[in-house]
Amino acid sequence: TSTTRIFSGVKPTGHLTLGNYLGAVRQWVESDQHRADALFCVVDLHALTVEHDPARVRRLSRQAATLLLAAGLDPTLCTVFVQSHVDEHTRLSYLLECTAADGEMRRMIQYKEKSARERATGGSVRLSLLTYPVLMAADILAYRADEVPVGDDQAQHVELTRDLAVRFNQRYGQTFTVPRAVLPPVAARVMDLQDPTSKMGKSHAETSGIVYLLDEADVVRKKVMRAVTDSATDVVYDRAERPGVANLLELLAACTGTAPDTLAAGYGSYGALKRDTADAVVELLRPVRERHAELCADPAYVDGVLRDGARRARELARPTVDAAYRAIGL
Ligand code: ADP
User: Fold this and answer.
1) Which residues contact 135 (CB under 8 A, 6 or more apart)?
2) Average confidence (pLDDT) over 226-242
3) CB of residue 144 inside a 6 A radius of ligand 1
4) Which atom of ligand 1 is nearest to the CA of 187?
5) Among 15, 47, 14, which Cα is nearest to 212's?
6) Confidence at 233, pLDDT banded by 50, 70, 90
7) Per UniProt, where does ATP bind (predicted)?
8) ipTM
């Protein structure tokens, strides 16, 4: 009867969004850190896989870590750390690269989308963009995590992680725990308010379709009120045919705990739905923004949390990664 181990992370490729919060961070805060031995990581190496300004990555890593604490991760309950502070991730990644196949990496949806985006903007595609899911597998497997709480967009990468764990174990002997993805019941994929057919992504160019955790209340309100819906006027929950309205209903559902279709029945117009959703999101984010400001005033506290977090993470990861090298006979 060992405790459940949980690992999850966030990339410092942009400011954290409402999608990151509802799809992942809120579960970490409200459930995971209380019920399991949980590790949460700012995965800064992953931010280097696309075009980036190094100084900005550094700033965003710090901001992400501060926001995770502001959102309610409690370092007395869980481990919060930065990926590049713990060498075991890259040490293990190489062994997993020797386990993964070129073809299965090229099939990853995020790779296809992001590499197309890099090419379209005249950039070159970094090799690390292709191998990024392998490093992510290493992030997870190094801690023998049982569960990986993520949004829907990461489910395919967790599936790959399972495949690599099983394959490694079969080839070299039992070494890794085979983890499973855990998705939130609602808002597993929060959509862009201006383009409800694409996900609200922090790495996308900043638009009024993306709500950031640090947006001021009036900015949040404006973004929600201007959300694209459709030409119909009745409120029904239909993700395929009415994605804009469905997105608003899911946001309100995630804030209130009432199911989206139940909520839909209570609204006769988009205006009222948008107003209530805006209010709910503003209230949801208010304490996070306030706590973030407090923590920014205490950088030594954040430094200490990250230092302790890296130490604990290293202690957990090293034996597993050593075991992986030994399993191969190295
Ligand atoms: P992003 O894609 O915004 O750069 P990350 O890859 O850093 O985000 O993901 C951090 C966590 O947030 C992951 O668990 C991911 O599945 C989740 N997530 C990201 N965007 C969304 C979204 N729009 N809706 C729900 N969850 C999301």
Assistant:
1) 45, 46, 89, 90, 93, 128
2) 92
3) no
4) 25
5) 15
6) confident
7) 11-13, 19-20, 151-153, 190, 199-203
8) 0.97
